[in-house]
Amino acid sequence: MSARRKQAEGDNNAMILKAISDGGLSFAVQNIHKIENIEEILYAESLARVTDAEGVVHTAGSFMPQLDDGFDLDQRILDMVLSALAADTTLILGCNLTAANLSASDRFADIFGRITHNPELTSRLVVEITETHPLVGAAIERLKMIRALGCRIAIDDFGVGFATPANLLQVSADIVKIDASFVRDNRPGRDGRDSLYHMVGFASCIAPVVVVEGIETEAQFETARAAGATHAQGFLLSQPAWLPRLRQEKSKFSLRGVE
């Protein structure tokens, strides 16, 4: 790596960290729609964002690699999500939690404590597990503890994480979200069914609600419907939005829980 590139990356890292310290960390939301009635919203996923001093909004994928190990993004966003739920009793929000934080006893204790202290909010909180770490052993048991509080559990980016099929079948999940790569690169099988159909079929063995992520075209939406998915998420159906905008659109959509 050239000295100039190193300098540029260092400047960018410093800019992101300063933006966070100045209060620039926030989250946008994106709705998850029922396939058979897209006006029916399951919940809205919370997406971490950082707004820098120039007003530029950075997505999580662009700034997460720049955060050091001591910065717990999950805890920061969870606090914001809980505050939003307390402020608006009609909201149902999803919040990411990495499998690594489930496995780390100290970080899990902090997260579990935050949720426990807000029992009136748990029925409107969906905890989305991102598989950045194997979902095994203690992590599975701790996931059960969160679900016992009344939260719903979603497995995010299904199909591209560390968990094996055998481990996933041990998880008590309410929702499985199939990674967008499976609708983008959907392949025909020898049985006449495509790969997305088989992914949805397996996901249905884990949870009653199956969401296909990354829906950007009508053709992809119809493919998800034909595969048997119950819900869909993507730019075709709704763009990520700030919460004030989401509240303005409630006249068009009705937030509902898992039935």
Main attributes?
11 helices; 259 residues; 8-stranded mixed beta barrel
- Biggest sheet: strands, sense, closure? 8 strands, mixed, barrel
Average per-residue pLDDT, rounded, comes to 87
What is the end-to-end distance?
52 Å
- DSSP helical segment count: 11
CA radius of gyration: 19 Å
User: Stretches where pLDDT falls below 50 for ≥5 residues?
Assistant: 251-259
Overall number of strands: 10
- Work out the helicity level: 25-40%
* Strand arrangement, major sheet: 1-2-4-5-6-7-8-9
Secondary-structure blueprint:
Layout: H1 3-21, E1 25-34, E2 37-51, E3 57-59, H2 60-63, H3 73-87, E4 93-98, H4 99-103, H5 105-116, E5 125-130, H6 138-148, E6 152-158, H7 165-168, E7 175-178, H8 181-184, H9 195-203, E8 209-212, H10 218-227, E9 231-232, H11 243-248, E10 254-255
Parallel strand pairs: 2-4, 2-10, 4-5, 5-6, 6-7, 7-8, 8-9
Antiparallel strand pairs: 1-2, 1-9, 2-3
Helix pairs in contact: 3-5, 9-10
